[in-house]
Specification:
Blueprint: H1 15-35, E1 50-55, H2 63-70, E2 76-79, E3 88-92, E4 100-104, E5 117-120, E6 125-126, H3 128-140, E7 149-152, E8 156-157, H4 160-173, H5 187-195, H6 208-222, H7 227-246, E9 247-248, H8 250-259, E10 264-267, H9 293-298, E11 307-313, E12 315-318, H10 331-339, E13 352-357, H11 358-368, E14 372-376, E15 386-395, E16 398-402, H12 408-412, E17 415-422, H13 439-452, E18 456-460, E19 468-470, H14 475-479, H15 529-532, E20 546-550, H16 559-575, E21 578-581, H17 587-598, E22 603-608, H18 609-613, E23 623-627, H19 630-640, E24 643-646, H20 653-665, E25 673-676, H21 683-695, H22 700-705, E26 706-709, H23 712-717
Parallel strand pairs: 1-10, 1-11, 2-5, 2-10, 5-7, 6-8, 7-9, 11-14, 13-15, 14-18, 20-21, 20-24, 21-22, 22-23, 24-25, 25-26
Antiparallel strand pairs: 3-4, 12-13, 15-16, 15-17, 18-19
Length: about 725
């Protein structure tokens, strides 16, 4: 305890009161963070996308162009990692003249679209001079991003001494044949300082004495003259106003945005072939380039990223040194290089070219677990009679087909095993829809998808934004679903032009705030707290609470338990109690949802994508939400519901109940848990809870949250207002069934 009388006792001393105050403070902080973002964009269907765009090759497959195409469907575009050694090219036509080409190295792609907020994450290495030049170029071209670009205050800087160290290493410190072929942008040395704890972050530039100390240590590390320290301090002084004007706690912002259901797009740089841990070492960059760079470079939980879109060029390219099994050094390689304009965006160096290496792409798909693939630059292959595809390797003593392994000595000992697919003799230039594509091209895409075990969701047959063809029913079609038209205000309901009316899915509207997002043709808009309060036009049966129901999905569950589930569903519909459940269509889940819907009730289904892909989800639900994981499903169910109802016989029911109690102890929710049924199913579990209470592992209040009801009616009676939390000291119900 503090001995300082001036501290005094905190005016809030009760544990639950303090907890409420902490939660309120957290909520205000989130609201403040989100206040700077644009109004929520209404979606035609499905939850707001959280998307990552990565590469299946070295990194020049067209991520920037893909991000630019997806940016209008997201609120934030976040550059995740790398530095100005990565160049992203965007080309588009606006009908007013020749195509516009933008080449960025640090500014996230897609910033040409109004209303998109850009974020440079903590995993990015920032050269302030490059950043200033890009901002000036965008401004001169009429794409001002002032006020729309945020920079992580924890991002490390690339300084002039890092460029000097990089050049010296490439020019003289390596033996012949060991030159990596870096971009000489100082990225490697900057990462050395970062992990040596002598780096300079954006936030550090506010203290030039601290900067000087860090620079002195770094100069000594690289054997550079002391004079470079003073030069670099002045260089930092010249750029720090720009850096600090954009600096923000982007980890907190992105966490709040994802939690609020805002659509967020993460932009990767480079590709897995040069990942520092998983690539062809030592011919790698010094940053992570695979999917785990997203949580590391932004602070956002990787499980929240539902869409992992990988770009895959229809042939293979590589810049710099390292093993390249399908490289063509003759006429074919030169033709691909010429037709594809294959030179590095950052260095201008010509790229090495060859046929597509699917053995390598499969390794990349397994490593990153892409949810779909976009094939790019297919127009380069227009007119070929046959198109080569590498399906594996052979080496001395083993005819294969051998898989890809990211080891230099292994790759240099391998030769490709090709299959040749029929080419398409026609041009794809004028194709605008999937049906316009040549049959040979769609067959090529089908072969790639079958080999990788990943669906192809898009085909790009040119460099411009409108050269993307979306595969009907694919992942891109879901992410890029057009926003619904704004509803026409009714008489007497004049809109307030100064007020944003859209609310993120799953979040409560502010008092007096309307919901702007209209339901799509095949799916109702997500249920929110405002709708649970009975706002008109939602199709709700009444204005009762929302209950999360945990029950079994197996077809072989006990008939008594299925009958109880049906009774719960019917009773919820009768009382106007909204149901949130696991989206199953058979067993107890099917009985529950069938009875609720037949009675005119409303149901929200939440299911992990992996289960949805295995056809376990009930696809006819108007409000069906597909999430990344079981954990995210539980969290969303707890968030939406006012109480938890647990039925007997469900797979994992005991686990669900223990987790509910644990979450209560941790202060993550304080919602009642009602056990339904009189079969004796819960007796062992209730005994364990009573033992936990006696042993002091849970409090009386926590134990009192878990109640028992023998029938559906009794269960819902316990959820009526005023009975959510028994008063402290109330004896908990002893479950008899």
């Amino acid at each position: 305890m503090s001995d300082n009388a001036a501290d005094g006792p905190h005016p809030l001393t009760d544990a639950h009161t303090l907890l409420s105050a902490v939660r309120a403070r957290r909520a205000r902080t989130c609201e403040d963070l989100l206040a700077a973002l644009p109004a929520v964009k209404p979606r035609d269907r499905g939850p707001a996308p959280v998307t990552w765009v990565g590469d299946l090759q070295q990194g020049d497959g067209g991520k920037g162009a893909m991000v630019d195409r997806l940016a209008p469907h997201h609120d934030l575009v976040v550059r995740v990692q790398g530095g100005d050694n990565a160049g992203h090219t965007v080309a588009f036509r606006d009908g007013r003249g020749p195509a516009t080409v933008l080449k960025n190295h640090l500014v996230p792609s897609g910033m040409r679209h109004p209303g998109v907020v850009g974020v440079i994450g903590n995993g990015v290495l920032v050269n302030p001079e490059t950043l200033a030049g890009e901002l000036a170029d965008l401004d001169a071209r009429g794409f001002a991003v002032s006020g729309r670009l945020l920079l992580s205050d924890r991002a490390h800087l690339v300084l002039p001494l890092h460029l000097r160290a990089d050049a010296r290493q490439e020019d003289g410190d390596r033996a012949d044949g060991e030159v990596i072929g870096t971009t000489r942008r100082g990225i490697g040395p900057a990462n050395v300082c970062k992990y040596n704890r002598t780096g300079v972050r954006v936030r550090d530039t506010a203290d030039l004495d601290l900067v000087r100390d860090r620079l002195r240590l770094s100069a000594g590390l690289f054997g550079l003259p002391p004079s470079c320290v003073d030069d670099d301090v002045e260089w930092v002084r010249a750029h720090r106003d720009l850096l600090l004007s954009m600096a923000a706690d982007t980890t907190a912002l992105l966490g709040a945005a994802v939690e609020a259901g805002r659509p967020v797009l993460f932009e990767g740089a480079q590709g897995p072939l040069i990942d520092v841990d998983h690539g062809i070492y030592p011919y790698v960059t010094t940053s992570p380039t695979v999917f785990h760079s997203v949580p590391a470079g932004t602070g956002v939980d990787g499980a929240r990223v539902r869409h992992r879109v990988g770009v895959l060029k229809a042939y293979q390219t590589m810049v710099g040194n390292g093993g390249f099994v399908t490289e063509e050094t003759g006429e074919l390689g030169a033709l691909l290089r010429e037709r594809g304009a294959e030179s590095g965006t950052t260095t201008g160096r010509p790229r090495r070219c060859g046929w597509l290496d699917l053995a390598h792409a499969h390794w990349s798909a397994e490593l990153n677990r892409y949810t779909s693939v976009v094939l790019t630059k297919l127009d380069v292959l227009d007119g070929f009679d046959r198109i080569g595809v590498c399906v594996g390797y052979r080496r001395a003593g083993d005819d294969g087909p051998l898989p890809f392994r990211p080891e230099e000595d292994y790759l240099r000992s391998c030769t490709p095993i090709y299959t040749h697919l029929p080419g398409w003799r026609t041009s794809t230039t004028h194709a605008r829809d999937y049906a316009d594509l040549p049959a040979e091209l769609t067959a090529f895409a089908g072969f790639v998808s079958a080999y990788l075990g990943v669906p192809v969701s898009g085909i790009s047959k040119g460099p411009h934004a409108d050269d993307l063809i979306v595969v009907p029913g694919g992942e891109l079609a879901e992410v890029m679903a057009p926003a619904p038209e704004a509803p026409v205000p009714t008489a007497g309901a004049a809109a307030d032009p100064g007020r944003d009316t859209a609310v993120a899915p799953g979040r409560a509207a502010a008092p007096g705030q309307d919901q702007a997002a209209a339901p799509g043709p095949d799916r109702a808009a997500p249920v929110t707290a405002a709708r649970r309060a009975g706002d008109p036009g939602t199709g709700r049966a009444g204005s009762g609470p929302c209950v999360a129901v945990f029950c079994g999905a197996g077809a072989g569950t006990d008939p008594r338990h299925r009958r109880l589930a049906a009774q719960i569903g019917a009773e919820c519909a009768r009382r106007g109690t909204h149901i949130v459940y696991g989206a199953g269509g058979v067993g107890m889940m099917g009985a529950l949802s069938d009875a609720a819907l037949e009675g005119g009730g409303t149901v929200t289904g939440i299911i992990p994508r992996s289960l949805m892909e295995r056809e376990f989800g009930r696809r006819d639900l108007h409000d069906l939400r597909v999430v990344a994981s079981m954990h995210e499903r539980k969290a969303l169910m707890y968030d939406l519901a006012d109480a938890v109802l647990v039925l007997p016989g469900g797979y994992g029911t005991f686990d669900e109940l223990f987790e509910a109690v644990t979450w209560t102890q941790l202060g993550l929710h304080d919602k009642p848990v009602v056990l339904a049924g009189a079969s004796g199913y819960f007796d062992p579990l209730v005994g364990l809870l009573d033992h936990a209470l006696t042993a002091g592992f849970i409090t009386p209040d926590d134990r009192a949250l878990v109640r028992h009801a023998a029938t559906a009616g009794e269960a819902l009676d316990l959820l009526s207002p005023g009975r959510f939390r028994p008063a402290a000291g109330t004896a908990p119900d002893r479950a008899a069934g």
